[in-house]
Specification:
This protein folds into four domains: 81 residues, Beta Barrel (Elongation Factor Tu (Ef-tu), domain 3), CATH 2.40.30; 144 residues, 2-Layer Sandwich (Threonyl-tRNA Synthetase, Chain A, domain 2), CATH 3.30.980.10; 38 residues; 106 residues, Diaminopimelate Epimerase, Chain A, domain 1, CATH 3.10.310. The protein has nine helices and 18 strands. Strand 4 and strand 5 form a beta hairpin. The chain binds zinc ion.
Length: 395
Protein backbone atom coordinates (compact mmCIF):
# COMPACT_ATOMS: atom_id res chain seq x y z
CA UNK A 1 0.00 0.00 0.00
CA UNK A 2 0.95 3.66 -0.50
CA UNK A 3 3.23 2.76 -3.41
CA UNK A 4 4.64 5.70 -5.35
CA UNK A 5 2.36 4.88 -8.29
CA UNK A 6 -0.77 5.09 -6.12
CA UNK A 7 -1.29 8.85 -6.25
CA UNK A 8 -4.59 8.66 -4.34
CA UNK A 9 -2.45 7.80 -1.27
CA UNK A 10 0.49 10.15 -1.83
CA UNK A 11 -1.93 13.03 -2.52
CA UNK A 12 -5.61 12.28 -1.93
CA UNK A 13 -6.45 15.81 -3.19
CA UNK A 14 -5.00 15.18 -6.67
CA UNK A 15 -7.77 15.64 -9.24
CA UNK A 16 -5.79 15.39 -12.49
CA UNK A 17 -2.63 13.53 -13.48
CA UNK A 18 -0.67 12.19 -16.45
CA UNK A 19 0.25 8.52 -16.80
CA UNK A 20 1.59 6.04 -19.33
CA UNK A 21 -0.65 3.20 -20.51
CA UNK A 22 1.00 -0.13 -19.64
CA UNK A 23 -1.78 -2.41 -20.87
CA UNK A 24 -5.21 -2.20 -22.52
CA UNK A 25 -7.33 -5.27 -23.18
CA UNK A 26 -10.94 -5.70 -24.25
CA UNK A 27 -13.04 -7.26 -21.47
CA UNK A 28 -16.68 -8.11 -20.86
CA UNK A 29 -17.56 -4.53 -19.88
CA UNK A 30 -15.52 -2.42 -22.32
CA UNK A 31 -11.75 -2.02 -21.88
CA UNK A 32 -9.43 -2.79 -18.98
CA UNK A 33 -6.58 -0.30 -18.69
CA UNK A 34 -3.45 -0.47 -16.51
CA UNK A 35 -1.34 2.69 -15.97
CA UNK A 36 2.15 3.29 -14.56
CA UNK A 37 0.56 5.51 -11.90
CA UNK A 38 -2.97 6.59 -11.04
CA UNK A 39 -5.05 8.89 -8.86
CA UNK A 40 -8.12 6.69 -9.36
CA UNK A 41 -9.04 4.95 -6.10
CA UNK A 42 -9.95 1.27 -6.63
CA UNK A 43 -13.04 0.03 -4.77
CA UNK A 44 -12.02 -1.29 -1.38
CA UNK A 45 -12.36 -1.02 2.38
CA UNK A 46 -16.02 -0.11 1.98
CA UNK A 47 -15.23 2.89 -0.22
CA UNK A 48 -16.58 2.89 -3.81
CA UNK A 49 -14.28 3.26 -6.82
CA UNK A 50 -13.55 6.64 -8.39
CA UNK A 51 -15.12 7.64 -11.68
CA UNK A 52 -13.80 10.07 -14.28
CA UNK A 53 -11.92 10.22 -17.58
CA UNK A 54 -8.67 9.02 -19.14
CA UNK A 55 -8.41 11.34 -22.16
CA UNK A 56 -11.82 10.91 -23.86
CA UNK A 57 -12.46 7.48 -22.34
CA UNK A 58 -14.98 7.32 -19.51
CA UNK A 59 -13.76 5.46 -16.40
CA UNK A 60 -16.83 3.78 -14.84
CA UNK A 61 -15.09 1.43 -12.38
CA UNK A 62 -11.64 0.83 -10.88
CA UNK A 63 -10.56 -2.37 -9.16
CA UNK A 64 -7.45 -3.87 -7.68
CA UNK A 65 -6.97 -7.25 -9.41
CA UNK A 66 -4.04 -9.50 -8.45
CA UNK A 67 -2.25 -6.46 -7.00
CA UNK A 68 -2.72 -4.38 -10.16
CA UNK A 69 -5.12 -1.43 -10.44
CA UNK A 70 -7.43 -1.90 -13.43
CA UNK A 71 -9.45 1.00 -14.91
CA UNK A 72 -12.65 -0.02 -16.72
CA UNK A 73 -13.20 2.31 -19.69
CA UNK A 74 -15.58 2.64 -22.64
CA UNK A 75 -12.78 3.30 -25.16
CA UNK A 76 -9.45 1.65 -25.96
CA UNK A 77 -6.22 3.50 -25.08
CA UNK A 78 -2.94 3.02 -26.94
CA UNK A 79 -0.30 1.10 -25.00
CA UNK A 80 2.77 3.29 -24.41
CA UNK A 81 0.85 6.55 -24.85
CA UNK A 82 0.74 9.21 -22.14
CA UNK A 83 -2.87 9.90 -21.13
CA UNK A 84 -4.44 12.61 -19.00
CA UNK A 85 -6.53 11.39 -16.09
CA UNK A 86 -9.31 13.50 -14.58
CA UNK A 87 -11.33 12.39 -11.58
CA UNK A 88 -15.02 13.01 -10.97
CA UNK A 89 -13.91 15.16 -8.05
CA UNK A 90 -17.35 15.79 -6.62
CA UNK A 91 -17.84 12.02 -6.23
CA UNK A 92 -14.35 11.45 -4.77
CA UNK A 93 -14.49 14.37 -2.33
CA UNK A 94 -17.97 13.27 -1.24
CA UNK A 95 -16.51 9.80 -0.53
CA UNK A 96 -13.56 11.34 1.38
CA UNK A 97 -15.88 13.45 3.55
CA UNK A 98 -18.25 10.58 4.24
CA UNK A 99 -15.49 8.03 4.82
CA UNK A 100 -13.72 10.31 7.30
CA UNK A 101 -17.05 11.03 8.98
CA UNK A 102 -17.52 7.29 9.34
CA UNK A 103 -14.21 7.05 11.24
CA UNK A 104 -15.28 9.84 13.60
CA UNK A 105 -18.74 8.37 14.34
CA UNK A 106 -17.50 4.76 14.64
CA UNK A 107 -14.63 6.03 16.82
CA UNK A 108 -16.74 7.99 19.31
CA UNK A 109 -19.14 5.03 19.65
CA UNK A 110 -16.18 2.69 20.13
CA UNK A 111 -14.75 5.00 22.80
CA UNK A 112 -18.06 5.38 24.63
CA UNK A 113 -19.47 1.84 24.40
CA UNK A 114 -16.59 -0.36 23.26
CA UNK A 115 -18.68 -1.53 20.29
CA UNK A 116 -16.94 -2.55 17.05
CA UNK A 117 -17.97 -1.48 13.56
CA UNK A 118 -18.74 -4.93 12.08
CA UNK A 119 -20.26 -3.76 8.79
CA UNK A 120 -19.58 -0.66 6.72
CA UNK A 121 -21.29 0.29 3.46
CA UNK A 122 -21.10 3.46 1.43
CA UNK A 123 -24.27 3.65 -0.69
CA UNK A 124 -25.12 6.33 -3.24
CA UNK A 125 -27.29 8.28 -0.80
CA UNK A 126 -26.10 7.31 2.67
CA UNK A 127 -23.54 5.40 4.70
CA UNK A 128 -24.44 2.56 7.03
CA UNK A 129 -22.37 1.19 9.91
CA UNK A 130 -23.28 -1.84 11.96
CA UNK A 131 -22.13 -1.35 15.56
CA UNK A 132 -21.82 -4.56 17.59
CA UNK A 133 -24.09 -3.63 20.51
CA UNK A 134 -27.52 -2.16 21.26
CA UNK A 135 -28.06 1.61 21.53
CA UNK A 136 -31.09 3.67 22.52
CA UNK A 137 -32.33 6.59 20.44
CA UNK A 138 -30.95 9.01 23.06
CA UNK A 139 -27.53 7.31 22.96
CA UNK A 140 -27.40 7.60 19.16
CA UNK A 141 -28.30 11.31 19.37
CA UNK A 142 -25.56 11.82 22.01
CA UNK A 143 -23.00 10.09 19.76
CA UNK A 144 -24.08 12.22 16.79
CA UNK A 145 -23.40 15.31 18.92
CA UNK A 146 -20.04 13.95 20.13
CA UNK A 147 -19.01 13.22 16.52
CA UNK A 148 -19.98 16.74 15.41
CA UNK A 149 -17.95 18.18 18.30
CA UNK A 150 -14.93 16.26 16.96
CA UNK A 151 -15.54 17.78 13.53
CA UNK A 152 -15.67 21.30 14.93
CA UNK A 153 -12.43 20.62 16.85
CA UNK A 154 -10.58 20.55 13.49
CA UNK A 155 -8.45 17.48 14.26
CA UNK A 156 -5.76 16.52 11.73
CA UNK A 157 -6.17 13.07 10.16
CA UNK A 158 -2.88 11.22 10.46
CA UNK A 159 -1.88 8.34 8.18
CA UNK A 160 1.03 6.08 9.20
CA UNK A 161 2.52 2.64 8.69
CA UNK A 162 3.61 1.54 12.16
CA UNK A 163 5.53 -1.67 12.80
CA UNK A 164 3.83 -4.67 14.42
CA UNK A 165 5.29 -3.68 17.83
CA UNK A 166 4.14 -0.07 17.44
CA UNK A 167 0.71 -1.29 16.39
CA UNK A 168 0.42 -3.48 19.48
CA UNK A 169 0.88 -0.39 21.65
CA UNK A 170 -1.66 1.71 19.72
CA UNK A 171 -4.95 -0.09 20.33
CA UNK A 172 -6.64 0.70 17.04
CA UNK A 173 -10.00 -0.50 15.65
CA UNK A 174 -9.66 -3.29 13.10
CA UNK A 175 -12.04 -3.79 10.17
CA UNK A 176 -10.54 -7.18 9.26
CA UNK A 177 -7.59 -9.44 10.03
CA UNK A 178 -4.38 -7.64 9.18
CA UNK A 179 -1.21 -8.99 7.61
CA UNK A 180 1.89 -7.34 6.18
CA UNK A 181 2.18 -3.56 5.95
CA UNK A 182 -0.72 -1.91 7.78
CA UNK A 183 -2.03 1.59 7.06
CA UNK A 184 -3.30 3.24 10.22
CA UNK A 185 -5.68 6.18 10.07
CA UNK A 186 -5.45 8.10 13.34
CA UNK A 187 -7.78 10.91 14.37
CA UNK A 188 -6.45 11.72 17.86
CA UNK A 189 -9.10 11.49 20.61
CA UNK A 190 -11.68 10.38 18.03
CA UNK A 191 -10.52 7.25 16.25
CA UNK A 192 -7.57 5.06 15.36
CA UNK A 193 -8.29 2.44 12.72
CA UNK A 194 -6.59 0.35 10.06
CA UNK A 195 -8.01 1.51 6.73
CA UNK A 196 -7.10 1.64 3.03
CA UNK A 197 -9.56 4.37 1.94
CA UNK A 198 -9.06 8.03 1.11
CA UNK A 199 -9.72 10.67 3.76
CA UNK A 200 -9.86 14.44 4.16
CA UNK A 201 -6.87 16.00 5.95
CA UNK A 202 -8.84 17.42 8.89
CA UNK A 203 -12.12 16.50 10.58
CA UNK A 204 -13.38 20.04 9.90
CA UNK A 205 -13.66 19.16 6.19
CA UNK A 206 -16.31 16.55 7.06
CA UNK A 207 -18.56 19.56 7.69
CA UNK A 208 -21.37 17.80 9.51
CA UNK A 209 -22.55 14.30 10.44
CA UNK A 210 -26.30 13.72 10.45
CA UNK A 211 -27.77 10.40 11.54
CA UNK A 212 -30.78 9.49 9.39
CA UNK A 213 -31.85 6.32 11.20
CA UNK A 214 -30.77 3.84 13.82
CA UNK A 215 -32.30 0.37 13.87
CA UNK A 216 -31.75 -2.90 15.70
CA UNK A 217 -29.62 -5.20 13.58
CA UNK A 218 -28.41 -8.70 14.59
CA UNK A 219 -28.16 -7.81 18.26
CA UNK A 220 -26.39 -4.53 17.46
CA UNK A 221 -27.31 -1.21 15.91
CA UNK A 222 -27.33 -0.24 12.24
CA UNK A 223 -26.81 3.50 11.89
CA UNK A 224 -27.51 5.26 8.62
CA UNK A 225 -25.96 8.70 8.24
CA UNK A 226 -24.70 11.34 5.82
CA UNK A 227 -21.78 13.79 5.99
CA UNK A 228 -20.65 17.01 4.36
CA UNK A 229 -22.09 18.07 1.00
CA UNK A 230 -24.18 14.92 0.98
CA UNK A 231 -25.80 16.02 4.24
CA UNK A 232 -26.60 19.39 2.64
CA UNK A 233 -28.14 17.66 -0.40
CA UNK A 234 -30.18 15.42 1.91
CA UNK A 235 -31.31 18.45 3.94
CA UNK A 236 -32.27 20.39 0.79
CA UNK A 237 -34.28 17.49 -0.61
CA UNK A 238 -36.19 16.94 2.63
CA UNK A 239 -36.58 20.67 3.27
CA UNK A 240 -38.19 21.09 -0.17
CA UNK A 241 -40.62 18.27 0.62
CA UNK A 242 -41.54 19.79 3.98
CA UNK A 243 -42.10 23.21 2.40
CA UNK A 244 -44.36 21.67 -0.27
CA UNK A 245 -46.31 19.76 2.39
CA UNK A 246 -46.60 22.84 4.62
CA UNK A 247 -48.08 24.85 1.74
CA UNK A 248 -50.54 22.06 0.93
CA UNK A 249 -51.58 21.87 4.58
CA UNK A 250 -51.45 25.68 5.12
CA UNK A 251 -49.31 25.31 8.25
CA UNK A 252 -45.79 26.33 9.27
CA UNK A 253 -43.00 23.89 8.21
CA UNK A 254 -42.41 22.78 11.83
CA UNK A 255 -46.11 21.96 12.27
CA UNK A 256 -46.39 19.55 9.32
CA UNK A 257 -46.44 16.32 11.36
CA UNK A 258 -49.14 17.62 13.73
CA UNK A 259 -51.22 18.79 10.75
CA UNK A 260 -50.85 15.42 8.98
CA UNK A 261 -51.88 13.60 12.15
CA UNK A 262 -54.98 15.81 12.43
CA UNK A 263 -55.81 15.30 8.75
CA UNK A 264 -55.52 11.52 9.11
CA UNK A 265 -57.85 11.62 12.13
CA UNK A 266 -60.36 13.70 10.14
CA UNK A 267 -60.15 11.26 7.25
CA UNK A 268 -60.63 8.25 9.52
CA UNK A 269 -63.74 9.89 11.06
CA UNK A 270 -65.01 10.66 7.55
CA UNK A 271 -64.45 7.06 6.42
CA UNK A 272 -66.37 5.88 9.46
CA UNK A 273 -69.25 8.25 8.63
CA UNK A 274 -69.26 7.11 4.97
CA UNK A 275 -69.38 3.48 6.11
CA UNK A 276 -72.39 4.26 8.35
CA UNK A 277 -74.18 6.11 5.54
CA UNK A 278 -73.46 3.23 3.17
CA UNK A 279 -74.95 0.76 5.64
CA UNK A 280 -78.11 2.86 5.90
CA UNK A 281 -78.28 3.15 2.13
CA UNK A 282 -77.81 -0.61 1.74
CA UNK A 283 -80.59 -1.24 4.29
CA UNK A 284 -83.00 1.11 2.51
CA UNK A 285 -82.15 -0.37 -0.87
CA UNK A 286 -82.51 -3.91 0.46
CA UNK A 287 -85.98 -3.07 1.85
CA UNK A 288 -87.22 -1.97 -1.60
CA UNK A 289 -86.29 -5.29 -3.26
CA UNK A 290 -88.81 -8.12 -3.63
CA UNK A 291 -87.90 -11.39 -1.92
CA UNK A 292 -87.83 -15.01 -3.12
CA UNK A 293 -85.84 -14.38 -6.27
CA UNK A 294 -83.55 -17.04 -7.72
CA UNK A 295 -80.90 -14.76 -9.23
CA UNK A 296 -80.55 -11.10 -8.26
CA UNK A 297 -78.14 -8.88 -10.26
CA UNK A 298 -77.54 -5.33 -9.02
CA UNK A 299 -75.28 -2.67 -10.53
CA UNK A 300 -74.31 0.09 -8.10
CA UNK A 301 -72.39 3.23 -9.00
CA UNK A 302 -69.13 3.99 -7.26
CA UNK A 303 -68.84 1.17 -4.73
CA UNK A 304 -65.40 -0.13 -3.80
CA UNK A 305 -64.77 -3.90 -3.75
CA UNK A 306 -65.05 -3.80 0.06
CA UNK A 307 -68.40 -1.97 -0.10
CA UNK A 308 -69.66 -4.44 -2.71
CA UNK A 309 -68.88 -7.22 -0.25
CA UNK A 310 -70.71 -5.44 2.61
CA UNK A 311 -73.76 -4.90 0.40
CA UNK A 312 -73.74 -8.49 -0.94
CA UNK A 313 -73.48 -9.83 2.63
CA UNK A 314 -76.45 -7.70 3.69
CA UNK A 315 -78.57 -8.85 0.72
CA UNK A 316 -77.66 -12.49 1.32
CA UNK A 317 -78.57 -12.21 5.02
CA UNK A 318 -81.94 -10.63 4.06
CA UNK A 319 -82.50 -13.69 1.81
CA UNK A 320 -83.72 -11.61 -1.12
CA UNK A 321 -82.45 -14.21 -3.58
CA UNK A 322 -80.58 -17.52 -3.74
CA UNK A 323 -77.82 -15.99 -5.83
CA UNK A 324 -76.91 -12.36 -5.19
CA UNK A 325 -74.54 -10.56 -7.57
CA UNK A 326 -73.52 -6.96 -6.90
CA UNK A 327 -71.33 -5.10 -9.39
CA UNK A 328 -69.77 -1.67 -9.85
CA UNK A 329 -67.88 -0.16 -12.78
CA UNK A 330 -64.10 -0.16 -12.23
CA UNK A 331 -61.22 1.71 -13.81
CA UNK A 332 -59.45 -0.18 -16.57
CA UNK A 333 -56.02 0.49 -18.05
CA UNK A 334 -57.13 0.07 -21.68
CA UNK A 335 -60.50 1.85 -21.39
CA UNK A 336 -62.58 -1.29 -22.07
CA UNK A 337 -65.62 -1.80 -19.79
CA UNK A 338 -64.64 -3.48 -16.52
CA UNK A 339 -66.77 -4.29 -13.47
CA UNK A 340 -65.83 -5.43 -9.99
CA UNK A 341 -68.17 -8.12 -8.69
CA UNK A 342 -69.17 -9.97 -5.55
CA UNK A 343 -71.45 -12.98 -5.91
CA UNK A 344 -72.97 -14.73 -2.90
CA UNK A 345 -74.61 -18.18 -3.08
CA UNK A 346 -74.75 -20.56 -0.13
CA UNK A 347 -73.97 -23.56 -2.32
CA UNK A 348 -70.80 -25.56 -3.06
CA UNK A 349 -71.47 -25.18 -6.80
CA UNK A 350 -70.66 -21.45 -6.58
CA UNK A 351 -67.06 -22.22 -7.50
CA UNK A 352 -67.80 -23.96 -10.78
CA UNK A 353 -70.34 -21.27 -11.67
CA UNK A 354 -67.73 -18.59 -10.94
CA UNK A 355 -65.20 -20.34 -13.18
CA UNK A 356 -67.74 -20.47 -16.03
CA UNK A 357 -68.43 -16.75 -15.62
CA UNK A 358 -64.75 -15.82 -15.58
CA UNK A 359 -64.24 -17.78 -18.80
CA UNK A 360 -67.17 -16.14 -20.54
CA UNK A 361 -66.53 -12.58 -19.31
CA UNK A 362 -62.69 -12.46 -19.39
CA UNK A 363 -62.89 -12.29 -15.65
CA UNK A 364 -60.70 -13.16 -12.75
CA UNK A 365 -61.17 -13.83 -9.08
CA UNK A 366 -62.77 -16.47 -6.90
CA UNK A 367 -63.44 -17.32 -3.29
CA UNK A 368 -65.19 -19.77 -1.01
CA UNK A 369 -68.54 -18.70 0.47
CA UNK A 370 -68.56 -15.66 -1.77
CA UNK A 371 -66.66 -15.04 -4.98
CA UNK A 372 -65.19 -11.67 -5.86
CA UNK A 373 -63.11 -10.27 -8.68
CA UNK A 374 -63.60 -8.39 -11.93
CA UNK A 375 -65.15 -8.99 -15.35
CA UNK A 376 -63.85 -7.37 -18.52
CA UNK A 377 -67.18 -7.12 -20.37
CA UNK A 378 -70.12 -4.81 -21.03
CA UNK A 379 -72.96 -4.55 -18.51
CA UNK A 380 -75.56 -6.24 -20.78
CA UNK A 381 -73.22 -9.19 -21.45
CA UNK A 382 -72.55 -9.59 -17.72
CA UNK A 383 -76.28 -9.60 -16.88
CA UNK A 384 -76.99 -12.17 -19.60
CA UNK A 385 -74.07 -14.40 -18.57
CA UNK A 386 -75.00 -14.43 -14.85
CA UNK A 387 -78.57 -15.41 -15.69
CA UNK A 388 -77.41 -18.04 -18.23
CA UNK A 389 -74.97 -19.63 -15.79
CA UNK A 390 -77.11 -19.68 -12.62
CA UNK A 391 -80.70 -20.19 -13.90
CA UNK A 392 -80.13 -23.87 -14.96
CA UNK A 393 -79.27 -24.76 -11.32
CA UNK A 394 -82.84 -23.88 -10.30
CA UNK A 395 -84.70 -25.76 -13.09
ZN1 LIG B 1 -10.92 5.02 6.29
Amino acid sequence: MEEMNELFYTNPYLREFDATVLACTEGKKGFEVVLDNTAFYPEGGGQPADHGHLNEAVVSDVRRQNGVIVHFTDKALEVGAVVHGKLDWERRYDNMQNHTGEHVLSGVINNAFGYENVGFHMHEDAITIDMSGPMTEEEVIAMEKAANDMIKADIAVDISFPTAEERAAMGFRMKKELTGKVRIVNIPSADCCACCGTHVKSTQEVGIIKVLSATKHRGGTRIEFVCGDRALRDFTKKHDEVIKASRLLSVKPDEVATAVEKTLQTLAARDERIAQLNLRYFEMKTATLPGDQKVLVLFEEGLTPFELKVFATQLAQAKKADVTAVLAAAASADGSPTYNYVIAWDDARLREASKALNTRLSGRGGGKDMVQGSFKAARADIEAAINDVFTPYFN
